[in-house]
Write a structure and sequence with these properties.
It holds the Pfam family Methyltransf_25. GO terms for molecular function: methyltransferase activity. This is Class I SAM-dependent methyltransferase. The chain is of the alpha/beta class and about 210 residues long. It has a single domain, classed as Vaccinia Virus protein VP39 (Rossmann fold, 3-Layer(aba) Sandwich). It is built from seven helices and seven strands, in the order ααβαβαββαβααββ. A seven-stranded mixed β-sheet has the order 3-2-1-4-5-7-6, with helices on both faces. Helix 1 packs parallel to helix 4. The protein is globular and about 40 Å long.
Length: about 210
């Protein structure tokens, strides 16, 4: 399997053209998240892709730092933000463990459709916890690869071998919830928008 950066750099143009799979559920996730936001908040989104969600959320907070491993994704994101006249979103290339971000500097962290792509979820959740202010929120939307049927898991494994799919872990919902609690979060909201995915709002315990 190719490196994650190379994989996503190559797919950035096609990814940018891909429509949202379930527009109604996407809009519900946006609304739920925005219901928590405050105008003076600082927000981090890691794994932001081409920036669509960060751009939509921008009017509801003071600033958003949006990061991704793919520089090609971020090039597209920056152009989209400029076209939309959004000036309070800054884009940075890197990962949670490579970027120099100040501890306890964010009111909310968003990890949308990204946790299942990480090989060390525990380390990522620990990092998120450290970046959040006391009582801060972590909003995640995660594919539950461990709960899809065997055929699809085998297909993903085959596609990975030939470079057509990225690394994915096999998290289940209960395992993810347990990891969040172990990392120091309490679950405020949990929703299963469809088979094989979960949307969670978790609060950093003070």
């Amino acid at each position: 399997m190719k490196g994650a950066k190379e994989f996503w750099d190559k797919r950035a143009p096609r990814y940018a053209r891909s429509p949202v799979r379930d527009e109604a559920n996407y809009q519900k996730k946006l609304a739920i998240t925005q219901g928590y936001f405050r105008p003076d908040w600082s927000v981090l989104e890691f794994g932001c892709g081409t920036g669509s969600t960060a751009i939509v959320h921008a009017p509801y907070v003071e600033r958003i730092v949006a990061t991704d491993i793919s520089s090609k994704m971020l090039d597209i994101a920056a152009r989209k933000a400029m076209a939309a006249g959004v000036e309070n979103v800054s884009f940075q290339q890197g990962t949670l463990d490579s970027l120099e971000l100040a501890a306890q500097s964010f009111d909310a962290v968003l990890g949308l459709n990204v946790l299942h792509l990480l090989d060390d979820v525990d380390a990522a959740l620990s990092r998120v916890h450290g970046l959040l202010k006391p009582g801060g929120l972590f909003v995640s939307s995660t594919a539950l690869v461990g709960e899809i049927n065997v055929f699809w898991r085998l297909l993903i494994s085959t596609m990975q071998l030939v470079g057509f799919a990225p690394y994915v872990n096999r998290l289940g919902k209960q395992a993810l919830v347990s990891k969040l609690v172990a990392a120091g979060f309490s679950i405020e909201y949990e929703w299963l928008p469809g088979k094989g995915s979960v949307f969670i709002v978790a609060r950093k315990c003070t």
